[in-house]
UniProtKB/TrEMBL annotation:
Segments forming domain Helicase ATP-binding: 77-263
Gene3D superfamilies: Bacterial XPD DNA helicase, FeS cluster domain (1.10.30.20), P-loop containing nucleotide triphosphate hydrolases (3.40.50.300)
Alphabetically ordered keywords of this record: ATP-binding, Hydrolase, Nucleotide-binding
UniProt GO MF annotations: ATP binding; DNA binding; DNA helicase activity; hydrolase activity, acting on acid anhydrides, in phosphorus-containing anhydrides
Signal sequence annotation: none
Pfam family, one: DEAD_2
PANTHER family tied to this protein: DNA REPAIR DEAD HELICASE RAD3/XP-D SUBFAMILY MEMBER (PTHR11472), REGULATOR OF TELOMERE ELONGATION HELICASE 1 (PTHR11472:SF34)
Protein name per its UniProtKB record: Helicase ATP-binding domain-containing protein
Length: 263
């Protein structure tokens, strides 16, 4: 086991390299030294004389100490967002393939059994590009339980980033159909199909007959950002069930609130 000389966290082995999740730095052994690299150039070298698993004594030299050039900040990679200590079989290879395809604007299709870790594979592969390009990831699922799984993995990623002092914010929101999120007693009592529900919902809002929608509009007018309605809830990944419970307590429309938050 080796440790990062910068933050002293355990280094993560991957493809003949060592990676620090705390600093987002890659290390390789070169001529007896632990060399830290980014995409373009050498950032630092560490003298490994006397370095072993039980004796952490190293000399850390930043590039700025021996070069007048300004080093660039380390770019986030899939390892930055991978919250587990070890990869399952083929996970890293698949992540890299999806990452490469996304950069090249190509589609990826993965068919794999339960337990492969498809959710964390997709998130780890796509989050670096989404962060870099300031994009949103739209994750479509067949069932509510699958949606909940996405939020759980995002929460693990968010906690991992925070625990390792990585200044990247990851957020997410799981949403459901209007019929499954609506709290209006009139609409619920009618037991309509989705198209009919949309029409009734529209009429209720236009006629100012839905207290949940009216309360939400009042809140929207009070805040520049609706996340500030409850920062302790909305500044982290939120499952649809938790959003509905919050709105039920505050008498707000969860369906429209979810649409506002997604903006």
């Amino acid at each position: 086991m080796r440790f990062c000389p910068n933050c002293e966290k355990v280094l993560f082995p991957t493809n003949n390299q060592l990676y620090c999740k705390g600093c987002s730095l890659f290390y390789v052994l070169k001529n007896g030294s632990l060399v830290v690299k980014n995409d373009n150039d050498l950032l630092s070298e560490i003298n490994l004389a006397g370095f072993d698993d039980n004796n952490f004594q190293v000399e850390y030299k930043k590039k700025s100490d021996r070069d007048t050039g300004n080093s660039k900040p380390q770019k986030a990679s899939y390892l930055t967002f991978f919250p587990y200590e070890d990869f399952r079989k083929d996970q890293e290879r698949i992540i890299k393939q999806i990452e490469k395809a996304s950069i090249e604007k190509k589609n990826s299709l993965l068919a794999a059994p339960n337990g492969t870790g498809k959710t964390i594979i997709a998130l780890s592969a796509l989050l670096p590009l989404a962060i870099k390009k300031n994009l949103k990831i739209l994750y479509l699922c067949r069932t509510h339980s699958q949606n909940t799984r996405i939020i759980k993995e995002l929460t693990k990623i968010s906690t991992h980033l925070r625990n390792n002092d990585i200044n990247i914010k990851v957020n997410g929101l799981s949403i459901r159909g209007r019929n499954e999120m609506c709290l209006n007693e009139v609409l619920l009592s009618l037991k309509l199909n989705p198209r009919e529900s949309m029409a009734v919902c529209s009429d209720l809002r236009k006629n100012r007959s839905c207290k949940f929608f009216l309360n939400l509009i009042k809140k929207r007018d009070q805040y520049d950002n609706l996340i500030n309605i409850s920062p302790e809830i909305f500044n982290k990944p939120v499952d649809a069930e938790d959003l509905i419970k919050f709105c039920m307590d505050k008498k707000l429309c969860p369906y429209v609130l979810s649409k506002f938050l997604l903006k």
